[in-house]
Amino acid sequence: MSSLRSVISLAAAACIVGAYSAHAQTPAAPAAPPPPKHPIFSSPIGDIQISGHSELGLSVNPDSPANNANFGQPFTNGANAFRMNQTMLTVEHDTDSSATGFDYGFKFQTFYGTDARYTHFYNELDRATNSPYQMDINYLEANIHAPAMPVVSGGSDWQVGQYATPLGYEVIDATGNPFYSHSYIFTYGLPYKHTGVLGTFHINDTVDVWAGWDTGVNDSLGSKGVNNASLAHGILGFGLNNLMDGNLTLIALAHVGAENPTGSTTTVNGVTKAFNVNSALREYFDANGTYKINDSWTTTTEVNLVHDDVYKVTAGGVAQYVSYALNDQWTLGGRIEGFADQIKNGFAGFVCNNSGSEDATDGGRGLVYSNENTKNPTMLSQTTYCGNVNNGLPANITYGELTIGAAYTPPLPLPGTWGLTIRPEARFDSIIGGSAHVAPYNVSNKGVGTKSNQITLAVDALLAF
Prior knowledge:
Elements: H1 2-23, E1 40-41, E2 48-60, E3 81-93, E4 103-113, H2 116-119, E5 134-146, E6 156-164, H3 184-188, E7 193-202, E8 207-214, E9 233-243, E10 248-258, E11 265-268, E12 271-274, E13 281-292, E14 297-308, E15 313-325, E16 330-342, H4 361-364, H5 382-386, E17 396-408, E18 419-432, E19 453-464
Antiparallel strand pairs: 1-2, 2-3, 2-19, 3-4, 4-5, 5-6, 6-7, 7-8, 8-9, 9-10, 10-13, 11-12, 13-14, 14-15, 15-16, 16-17, 17-18, 18-19
């Protein structure tokens, strides 16, 4: 926990200094007009918009690990491999947030690619194939805008169905992220999706309140769509808009629920025993703020915490993003992050409990694979996956990463709303602090890590249509 407190303290100080210096800058000019709308088709329920994109990428690891995997980067885990991460299609009918009465819409978003291995709902398409290329649903929801009422002067907006989590700065949709690779926070410290009902209540132009119920982290519906029998899950939080002349936005959300799979056990003082998974809560907390300093500079700070009540383990960290718009074609960016993880009471840590190169819902089944070629659960090895440690894993491991990248939009004569963005990046991952002897990177032929750091060079191309 000392590592986690240090990371959070340093980031909090950075936020204060950054916000103070940013406030002294010239206010940003009005935002540029939005791009042309995507194809729209008329229907009995109103206009329906169709859009999409494809993301293809390459990640180069000079170490060439034997398991062909970049540890800590599941979504870009293919070392020296070319991947089609996602081809995403969105069909939607937006609601009118300014409507004085009720308004209705929907959103359906599906995608195919290697990213889908990690984002499935439990028992929903997650066993359709053993191929690394899989299908997934990101949104399948009805949308409702309700008019203003006492206390809620701006009305409210509702999501009913399946939807990506509102927690966190980074998202599943690649077009919403600044870099090709993902942060540790996004990968290990947050839910991906939910099935339920979520309301956003616009108290006024500044304050939004979020509240909703769902079936759990990455859970679907019915007895086969969830990993335990608990109905106690939900989201609560708030957002602050239009701060500092409209240049600062803050959002803080929590998801609380019973997330451990049926049959889970805990080990205390050498004694292993089962516990009531339906009453054992896990809490996710995430807050992020984005400040537009001026037309060129933008900063975002994210603070994350996740805690499991039964295992009494806590993980989380801080990520700092900065971007600089050099011109109409080039945007430069950086991300620095620390993520502290605990190993305790039979719990191998949030990073180690991630399913490696297999589907993320395996974590909901209590399965942890050491590499993508391991299909037999009897071959699972916590130590193999978490690193080469002579005397067992320490109680705390702190992961750090620094990513420097750019987004380039070449001036090509593309048709209609089509667009191309190319994003090169260089990333350095390392075990930091007192756990520096842990070596999860560069897995050898023996199936154990050999290094406490890793360098990757990657590039992706986003073709939007």
